[in-house]
User: Fold this.
Amino acid sequence: MHKHRNYHYVLNSMIFIIGSLCFFSANATGGEYLLAAGDRVKVVVFGHPDLSGDYEVDGEGRLSLPLIKSLPAAGLTVEQIEDAIADKLSPDYLKNPRVGVVVLEYRPFYILGEVKSPGSYPYSSNMTVVAAVALAGGYTYRAKKSEITIIRANDPKHQKAPADDSARVMPGDVIEVPERFF
Amino acid sequence: MIRGYRWLMIFPILLIEIAAGGAFGQELPWPETVTTRKRPEVDALGINTGAYRIYPAVSLGIVHDDNIFAVATDEKSDLVTHIQPRVDFESDWTRNELNLTINADIAQYMDTSSENYEDYLVGIDGRVDIQKGDYLRGEAGYARKHVPRNSPNDINGIEPTLYNVSSLSVAYQFVLGRLSFRLGSALDRRDYRDVASQSGTINNDDQDRDELTAVARIGYEMWSQGSAFFRARYENVKYDQQFDDSGLERSSAGNSVEIGIELPFSGVLFGEVFVGNVTRNYDDSRLEKIDSPSGGGALTWQPTGLTTVNASISRKVSESIVNASSGILTTEGSLWVDHELLRNLLLNASLTTGTDDFRGIEREDDNIEFGVSAKYLMNRNLHVSLGYVFEDRDSNTPGGSNSYTDNALRLAIKGQL
Assistant:
């Protein structure tokens, strides 16, 4: 029994560390990562495996967990959702709960225009525009590589912004590779 | 007897150097160009019958031609309707191929119905793959054609001169290490029909002839996909009648030898250039022998994936029916540009300029042809094209009687499956 608890402690600690790394990685891309519909997260409530598990932010941007049912998650950072879950659990269900959240799977990004296989693709950390194009099969012969645009998922105005090959891609971003005529 | 001996001499060449004519086509994996690029979204799907795929198509074109007789004075314009049906049967095999094509061009002149013509062609071609780089090709065809009014060999009949061409060719290519060999031979049989003229019927039997060509090409791969080559060509033209209507013996034999290089293609620039010499000896000593330096080449440059620039230079000897002229030595240069403005909108501009040197007489024609066209690929089944062609021939004949200028505007719609 004691050995089993130690195992849980190590596992939870590892998830916490990985989550923190991912979080800081997202920060490094130019702003804290904000959760949105389609993201899958792992929630760990220390010492309470029955409250822990993998959850997906639903289409309305909410996260549903045991006991606390659902709470708004879209637009919150990982740290904010940890606090929000802890607030919901305390003090009715737990005293001083310690909650860790890690994003298991980011929502996809989208790429369209002059790539060989346009569509939606799973996001992976530190993805750049050129990596996204490679995932989409590469440029077509009509691609205008110098005028790629990107619509950031967190841009409320959904404006197209110029992006070069090395620009970072975030989950939910829409990349457009325009066509050239000459 | 002498002619018979000459033919006997050709036979061993045919056996050893199997090849020629239309079968000389390049089989190299040239990079795709604007015109050869596959366009799955608008290319015809064809009808799949298992081992064969059938591509039926018909094109309806309307041409406004402001000088249908290609004359210097009293030009006559007309509106010409072209109906061009065609069907291609293409084998869908992993090895070897066997194809059949049948096509026609039915031209109806609105005001000058005497110019109406119906050309057609039936052709079959095949390839036997022996091993990588080695293959045997063969082609056979039968066509009915007409002599265009702008041809220097147009005889000015009341109607266009019709002729039949039967052709047979075979070519063999094989590779031995860095050496590559292409051997080929082609035989064309031309049969001209008589045509009515203002002064009676013109008997064209004196143009009926057999044309034999044998070619050998040896290449040495000096770079990856590039080689230096030596090419020798033998040509023999044998007229059915020993003397033509002017009393000349026009049968001839000649050859050309060329050395050149095939550029290592990078996808940006590829093609070949060569220099050499061409000769032609006529049976009649009154017809001037042709012995001229020759050279040429064809280069394709693709500055971008959307633009292809082609350039070619050539010098060749062709038959002449002009009295006292032994043959026409044509030196020609062409430049044409294809541009893919949109995936389904192709633009083209071309310029061809050259000189026809009528050997044995003083006549020399300077020719210029300029054209622009646009092709809109609406969908898999419908393509529309619009084009304009300007032609100018400046001849040094007295009074410029053989000079002409012509403008033609063409609109065509093509349906295909």
